[in-house]
Amino acid sequence: MRVTVLGAGTMGAGIAQAAATAGHDVALRDVEESYVEDGLARIDDTLSEGVDRGKVEPAERAAALDRITGATDLARAADGADLVIEAVPEDLDLKREVLGETEAHAGDRAVLASNTSALSVTELASALDRPERLLGLHFFNPVHLMGLVEVVVAERTDEATLETARSFVESLGKTAVEVRDSPGFASSRLGVALGVEAIRMYEQGVASAADIDAAMELGYNHPMGPLQLTDVIGLDVRLDVLEYLREELGERFRPPQALKRKVRAGKLGKKTGEGFYVWEDGEAVRPADDSVGGSGATAGDGSGAAR
């Protein structure tokens, strides 16, 4: 299968890597050459790390890299694609624009997919002349490690499109969970609900960030606590999703003030070096030393940050 991925950021690069590793020919496209180069370098680094850890054979790394080509020209990237996956920033208008432009260049048999984590796929499809060939393929970060892909069926998604998506996800060695298009789908809606309640507890001083996360890691066997996960996702991204879900589903998704204040201060989590935790070299080293969460916000010894 020839796969085109639109957007060479963290998710786009991860999807391109997963597809190429599974044997698909991949075009990774972004609007600037520097973005494409960064995405290709990220893929190279991840595969090289896999080799160093004994998880990837050197020959597998080389073969995967050979299957990926970078591009900035949308028409060239989409030409001949069997599947085009949009992975641009989580902005409804931007995604509609990109998908609309892509449809003009992709062949009549190409399936189009959006990696949106929460936005209405049905609304995205309304920008297309043939909305039946669009669905959602919601991957999880890091793509090469996470075994789930949420397949979001829009109002007019046809069976042929759905079958192509199922086959593609299976080819990656991942599990497809099919959901009807609704705000937040299943995974984002549940994940955000847990995350927003954790932020409210932090804000009210119920417990420290480290202890809230430890409760979910040790008590419920979560691989990462909800506040540290928010840092990894990006506080700005979580805020945008909450505001969208509040508009669609009501006040239970109202963003906490603690989250808004951190975003206004530029404390967006792992990508900026501080959110609910302080990050160094890609690792959470300690809870952030601030007073946003009241008396309980900085309590504890920070042991939850490093588990």
Automatic annotation (TrEMBL):
GO BP of this protein: monocarboxylic acid metabolic process
Entry keywords, A to Z: NAD, Oxidoreductase
Key word Oxidoreductase present: yes
Site (Important for catalytic activity) residue list: 138
Gene3D superfamilies per record: N-(1-d-carboxylethyl)-l-norvaline Dehydrogenase, domain 2, NAD(P)-binding Rossmann-like Domain
Assigned EC number: 1.1.1.35
SUPFAM superfamilies: 6-phosphogluconate dehydrogenase C-terminal domain-like, NAD(P)-binding Rossmann-fold domains
Key word Oxidoreductase present: yes
Disordered: annotated segments: 286-307
InterPro entries: 3-OHacyl-CoA_DH, 3-OHacyl-CoA_DH_NAD-bd, 3HC_DH_C, 6-PGluconate_DH-like_C_sf, 6PGD_dom2, NAD(P)-bd_dom_sf
Positions of the 3-hydroxyacyl-CoA dehydrogenase C-terminal domain: 184-279
Gly residues compositional bias, start-end: 293-307
Top-level taxonomic group: Archaea
Binding site for NAD(+): 7-12, 30, 90, 95, 117, 141, 271
GO function terms (MF aspect): (3S)-3-hydroxyacyl-CoA dehydrogenase (NAD+) activity
3-hydroxyacyl-CoA dehydrogenase NAD binding domain sequence ranges: 3-181
PANTHER family found in the cross-reference section: 3-HYDROXYACYL-COA DEHYDROGENASE FAMILY PROTEIN (PTHR48075), 3-HYDROXYBUTYRYL-COA DEHYDROGENASE (PTHR48075:SF5)
Protein name per UniProt: 3-hydroxyacyl-CoA dehydrogenase family protein
Organism of this sequence: Halobaculum halobium
